[in-house]
Amino acid sequence: MNRELAKRIALSLALVALCTAGFFAYFEQREVDVWRNASREARNNRYLALARLIERMGHPVSLHSDVSRLGELPDPPATVFLPTPRATLGKARSQALLDWVARGGHLVVVTYSSWEPGKRDGEDPTRLVRQSGPPDLLLDRFGLRQRAKPQEEIIQDMAAAAAPSGKAAEGAEEPASGDEAEREVKPPRNQPPTTWDFLAGRWQPGTVESAWAWIEDEGEPLEVEFHSGFWWEDTLEVATWSVAGAAGSHLVEFQHGAGTISALTSDEPFVNDSIGHVQNAEFVVRWLRHDRPALVPVWIFHEEAWPSSFELLRRHATPALLGASALVLLWIWRSAFRFGPLLPAPDPARRRWLEHLEAAGRFQWRQDRGHALLASLRGAALHELGRKHPGWAHAPEPERFEKLAQASGLTQDHVAHAFLGVVTGAKSFIAAVRTLERVRASL
C-alpha cells in the first residue's frame, strides 16, 4: 500500500514539473501598454499633462479656470500660462496683468486674432488690418500681428501630408535638403477643433510643422511642433528670441519692463495630445528653466469660465438691479397687507329650470328665431294629431280646424290662426303658442 502511494506521488510531481517546464519554455513575461480613454480630468483640462510635467520638475503648479484669480497672482518671478482667448479679460485686467509682467513676471499667451494686408481701395497694401478674431488687448500694442495662411493652401498641405510616401503629387517640387527637409509638414492631428478655434477661423484642422528652438548653452536645437497655418509678423521688432519653422516664427519672446512675455501662434507644444510628440516636453523643461530662477510658481489657466448672469448684472447693471429689487419688495408689501375686513363669500345661488328656459326663449326671440320655434310647434301638433286621429289629419283644413275647436273649447278662428296665421309680434306669438299647447292637450 505504501509503495503504491509513493508511485502516485512521484507521478504527480513529475507531471507538475513537466507542465511547469513547458510553461516557461513557451511563455515569457512582457510589459504591454494598454491604451485607455483619457480620464475625465484630462478631457476637461487640455493642459493637464503640462501641469504634471512641471510638477515633476519641482515647480509649484496651480490650475485655474476663473480669470478673476489674475488679481491674486503670486509675486514675481513667476510664470503664468494663459492660452485661452481672454474674451472676458477686459482692458483694466489686461493692464494689471501687464503691470505684473513689468515687475518681473513671465507671461505665456496664445493669440486668436489674425491680420492680413489691406485690400480696400486707397489703403496701404503694406498696412495690416484685422481679418478675424477679437482684438488682442495684450499683444496688439506691441506690434505683433499673427498672419494666417489661406484655407486653400491649408487644404493643399493636408492633401500633400496625407499622400503615401514615395508618391509625390503631380507637379510637386523635389523636397529640399538640409534644415528645410527636416522642417517637413506633418499630417493633421485627429482632434476636433474647439469652440475658440471656430471663432478664430481655425475651423480647418490644418497641419503641424516642425520648428527648431535654439536655446543658448543648451547644446543641440530642439524640435518643436506648431500649427503650420499661422506665423508672427513683428512689425515693431520687439522680439528678443523666437522659434521659427518653415512658415515663419511661431513663438516670439520679448521684454516688458523687468519681465518677459512669450507669444505663441498655437498651443501644440503644451496640450495633452501633442506634448509627447518629438521634443515638445523637453523644450518646455529647458525653456522654463533657461535664464530664469529655478522652481518658481507656475499658474495655468486651462479654461476661461464665463461669469454668471448675476455677476454680470452686478458688474454692469447695478442701478437696474437695485430698482428691480425695490419693485419686488414693494409688490410683496402690497400683496401681504389688506385694507379693511374680508367680505363674506356669497352663497352659491342655484337658478330654477324655468328661469333657464325663459332665458333661452328670450335669447331665441332676440335672435329673430320665433318663426322657427312656431313652425316646430305646429309640426309637433300635426304629428300628434296624425298619431291619435288619422282621419282628422287627412280631412280638409276647415273641417279639421272645426273638429279641433270643438275638442279644445276654442273658436275656429283661434285654431286657424295658431296653425296658419302670421305672427307679427310677441303677443300674437304667445297666443299662437298657447293655442297649440291647448290643442295638443285636448287630443
Key descriptive features of the protein:
443 residues, alpha/beta, 3-stranded antiparallel β-sheet, elongated
Structure description:
The chain is an alpha/beta fold and 443 residues long. The chain has 16 helices and 14 strands. The strands form four sheets. It has a seven-stranded mixed beta sheet with strand order 1-14-2-3-13-12-11. It has a three-stranded antiparallel beta sheet with strand order 7-8-9. A two-stranded antiparallel sheet has the order 4-5. It is elongated, with a radius of gyration of 48 Å. The N and C termini lie far apart (128 Å).
The chain-level structural class is alpha/beta
**Shape type:** elongated
Oligomer: single chain
Major beta-sheet overview: 7 strands, mixed
Tell me the total number of β-strands: 14
Poorly predicted runs of 5 or more residues = 165-184
Estimate the mean pLDDT confidence.
Answer: 80
For the largest sheet, list the strands in their spatial order: 1-14-2-3-13-12-11
DSSP strand (E) fraction?
A: 15-25%
- Distance between the first and last residues' Cα: 128 Å
Helix content: 40-55%
Spell the H/E element sequence.
Answer: HHHEEHEEEEHHEHEEEEEEHEHHHHHHHH
List the helices and strands and how they pair.
Blueprint: H1 2-26, H2 40-44, H3 48-57, E1 61-64, E2 79-82, H4 90-102, E3 106-110, E4 114-117, E5 128-132, E6 144-148, H5 151-162, H6 179-182, E7 185-186, H7 195-199, E8 208-213, E9 222-227, E10 230-234, E11 241-244, E12 249-256, E13 259-264, H8 280-289, E14 298-301, H9 309-316, H10 318-336, H11 353-366, H12 370-388, H13 390-394, H14 397-408, H15 412-420, H16 426-442
